[in-house]
């Protein structure tokens, strides 16, 4: 029988062959047409032909497909219904059932018209908001504003649009007015010493602004915000509009089938590996300038030593080439110039905070983002020593056999925890969106004997079983797996396997995210070899398989329901696979044959004890109350534009938040510290020591982790 890795490799190869054949058909069709095909025609046709052949649940390219693309395009084009008028929608609706015919004949009338209308409305709205913000708002009147896009409608005409924008801008100004009032109240509590020969001789306070001055300042801030937003909108080019449209088409198959423009694929690779090639500086766009926010420790910029936080990047040159000015550029476009292959040189012309300019040459290198990787600590609680292991993602470097693997790293962390003589382990998968399927399989094998971990099925045929074939168990003690509604995909595979084997206790929010699908990435440049003049095309991530638990159930749509459910601060949010556009549905298949863990936890006893602790916990009680209020507030989408009413609501919300924080402050903090092995390794590197300290500091008042530790203690 083939190994799991071989099976996955063979299936990926099959997908590639399908795309090559689809592309061959595209070439033949293009050959018969008149003139050379355009990039958008080639890209869309190649995508659709490949998706029709290789997607798990391919769509028919018909009127229903056209309606799905139309609806999702409209939603993405003007989500808040602030730009397009009803007359614009009427023009676009003519294409509602024509998009399928467009892609077949290689045209793009819907994309052209929607782009043209948005460009025109962007110009119109910019003049509109600038005119509205030139005059003061009256916050004493009794009126309200709808904040939920689903409850909004497109404006009937220009007059209705102006009124909608007036309320929208008034709402934005009201928010900032309230912030300024809070700032002024804080300043009154903090007097500032005046500058004099005798500093102690006089003390002054910051000048008190009148309501009119605060309102004017609030409008100024709103104007700045929208000017920045519209500057970015106007920098959107034809390639970006095509990429957005291609992604809409891909997303109508399912939420995880996506088109990646070349730079988006780079971002995906970075998230999967925790590595990228560049200079190692965190950048931000502020006031039309590209500023250095931070330097990554150990990076090329860190070693070169001249680039500092606060520097402004004015121009970028590749080695000895002519510099390109990036002033006024969008951040994502500037980053394309600054990043580059390891070993290449980039020359940055920067302005220092003192106004001086300097050219800094930096040889690019691999940048490692340590926050991507598994990290562990030790909790000392009631005389017990318990390990804590956080995994932010199931990372793997598919392009480098020597790259880091999340399964290998978790194995190493477990080895270190074992040497620390921990009596239990909490594996934290909260906010872990998944990643490498094979790493999820290998990682499960660290906790169980050999056996099936997950079942994988393509659109047709029998499912394949991915097994852990290593009989060794890396860690056999008490185990708690923490999840929340943002734990997805590979996180759900691991949590489900631990649950089905009865190997440990899964704890967290009412359910996980509900992503039970497998994706492959196809490099379209490799597939479209005859169209070199139109490259780069980017990549396509498409859903080719669904995975199923070894008990036969799918995690798709429904997610994993924990053994012990805890109150969760995010439970009021409607986020998950079932809330996304066009998700694949839940189903089940025949269970695999497996043997449960011989020393299964006493679930009922542990659950009862946990529920008793949670019920008597002031922190959890307040969290529950806060969640109920947030849920109610979320449903109340109409907000008052009266300053007095708005401030009263803000004050009430702050009092509730302060009450929760006060209880958290008096709660007994966890005694959690980095591993001794890690401390020795860091030595005198103060940057890394501070980073390790921040990791444990943020966990000390984590009430969910505190309860997980208690569940471990119940098993010792």
Automatic annotation (TrEMBL):
Query: What domain of life is recorded for the organism?
Result: Bacteria
Checking Pfam families in the record gives: DUF3340, PDZ, Peptidase_S41, TSP_NTD
Could you list this entry's UniProt keywords, alphabetically sorted: Hydrolase, Protease, Serine protease
Region named Disordered: 188-211
* Family annotation (SMART domains): PDZ, TSPc
Q: Which residues form the PDZ domain?
A: 274-339
- InterPro entries the UniProt entry points to: ClpP/crotonase-like_dom_sf, PDZ, PDZ_sf, Peptidase_S41A, Tail-specific_protease, Tail_Prtase_C, TSP_N
- What NCBIfam families does its record include? prc
Family recorded in the similarity comment: Belongs to the peptidase S41A family.
Q: What name does the UniProt record give this protein?
A: Carboxy terminal-processing peptidase
